[in-house]
Write a structure and sequence with these properties.
By secondary structure, the protein is an all-alpha fold. It has one domain (8-419): Cytochrome c oxidase-like, subunit I domain (Cytochrome C Oxidase, Chain A, Up-down Bundle). 79% of the residues lie in helices and 0% in strands. The chain has 13 helices and no strands. The longest helix is centred in the C-terminal third of the chain and has 43 residues, at 383-425.
């Protein structure tokens, strides 16, 4: 792993991001249970089970991993301080893990008051985090392409949350709106293309060479892609507000996503190390799914299918693969730091590849790949495909929990040896 250019001394305690990573699969599990119990409801985007499961995946799983990753990555990538991370990360973690299930329950039972409580809790989780992270980034001189993209993603995320609060107010009849469907579409576009897309693309600029010893994305793409996506999102919102057809902005966003996918796949194919690495396949599947989703959107495909492919392909598969690298690396790095601080080198620290067994990542990838066509069929209203999709999601969540808990258990047992065993020998 090429760690040049990173401020590893700024890395927070591993417990900060891990609390987000370990909790995320629980929400994926809840979403899978909801889909399995309501398999015929996937044919409608407005069904309670679909709305509940989408927000459990988007907030409880995807956003939770993204926030946990940013708590870890921002100090390392930019050298900035996010304050007392143990304290500042606890409120977002608690509020997000309370808010996402409350929102899911509010959608499921049609209880808009409960939905408002969940939305307020989510806002309490993410809005302070956005300001804690965004202000130091705005003050940074000469930002890298990754840092600039993260700035854009956080700014769009602020709009996503505000838009969500507006929609909750409309559902509770606190605010009037005659164009609810249009507003929901804009909210979803900002979340998928702006928050998820911008952040995934920006972080890939840094993590791809770091993890796989590849070349860089072309400089013209790194320099222009983030600005282009932000400008197109602003154009789309303006066209919607003026009640004009936003398809030109949507089509240009699709073309940008397709270009990113092709460049991403090409870069991964040219990596220096040719040894089999499951994470490479996670990212290739994610990029290919994004390409297919963008192609469908460009040629008038079903919007629900496009959104599902983007949410699962990029919002679930890519984080799943990335965590298979991040969790072992963070655990190994923390053990190295603890060993150096205490000056006790009698305990052998496990190799990074030993924190996770060799088979489980491939099984998880196979389950996630099966989930993509299964969901596409289920969205056509076929209940058997909905049941299969729910069971696949449950299996993915349980396997992911086993992988993450196993890696964390190995970290804790080794760390305990570093702290305790030398003391007994002294």
């Amino acid at each position: 792993m090429n760690t040049s250019g990173l401020s590893l001394e700024q890395a927070p305690p591993v417990e900060v991001p891990l609390r987000f990573f370990l909790a995320a699969p629980l929400h994926l599990l809840l979403a899978g249970i909801l889909i399995a119990l309501n398999p015929g409801e996937l044919g409608s985007r407005w069904s309670p089970a679909v709305l509940a499961s989408v927000h459990l995946v988007a907030l409880g799983f995807m956003t939770q991993i993204m926030i946990g990753s940013l708590f870890q990555l921002l100090p390392v990538l930019s050298g900035i301080s996010l304050g007392r991370l143990e304290r500042n990360s606890l409120l977002p973690w608690l509020s997000l893990n309370l808010g996402a299930p409350c929102m899911g329950a509010g959608f499921l039972f049609g209880n808009f008051s409960l939905l408002a409580v969940g939305a307020a809790s989510v806002a309490l989780a993410v809005l302070p985090f956005i300001f804690i992270a965004l202000f130091p980034l705005l003050k940074r001189d000469a930002p890298t392409f990754t840092i600039r993209g993260i700035r854009f993603a956080l700014a769009v995320f602020f709009l996503v949350v505000c838009y969500g609060l507006f929609l909750v107010a409309v559902l509770n009849n606190w605010l009037p709106s005659e164009r609810l469907t249009t507003h929901v579409d804009t909210h979803a576009t900002l979340a998928l293309a702006g928050w998820l897309g911008l952040l995934a693309m920006s972080i890939s600029f840094q993590l791809t060479p770091l993890f796989f010893i590849t070349g860089e994305f072309p400089s013209w793409f790194r320099q222009g892609a983030g600005i282009a996506i932000l400008a197109l999102l602003c154009l789309r919102m303006t066209l919607v507000l003026l009640e004009l057809d936003p398809s030109i902005a949507t089509n240009l966003l699709s073309l940008t996503a397709m270009l990113f996918s092709l460049l991403f796949i090409r870069l991964l194919r040219k990596r220096a190390r040719k040894t089999p690495d499951p994470v490479v396949f996670y990212w290739q599947v994610s990029a290919l799914t994004l390409f297919i989703a963008s192609l469908l959107l460009l040629f008038g495909g079903q919007g629900e299918t496009v959104a599902a492919l983007a949410l699962i392909g990029v919002g679930v598969i890519m984080p799943c693969g990335t965590l298979l690298k991040i969790i072992p690396f963070l655990s190994w790095l923390q053990l190295q730091n603890n060993q150096s601080k205490l000056g006790r080198f009698v305990i052998r620290i496990p190799h990074m590849n030993s924190f996770i067994d060799a088979t489980s990542p491939w099984i998880l990838l196979a389950l996630l790949i099966l989930l993509l066509p299964s969901l596409a069929v289920a969205l056509r209203g076929y209940s058997y495909a909905g049941l299969f999709s729910g069971l696949l999601l449950i299996a993915c969540a349980l396997l992911q929990m086993r992988i993450f808990i196993g890696a964390h258990t190995k970290f804790r047992s080794t760390n305990r040896k570093i702290i305790e065993i030398p003391l007994k020998a002294d």
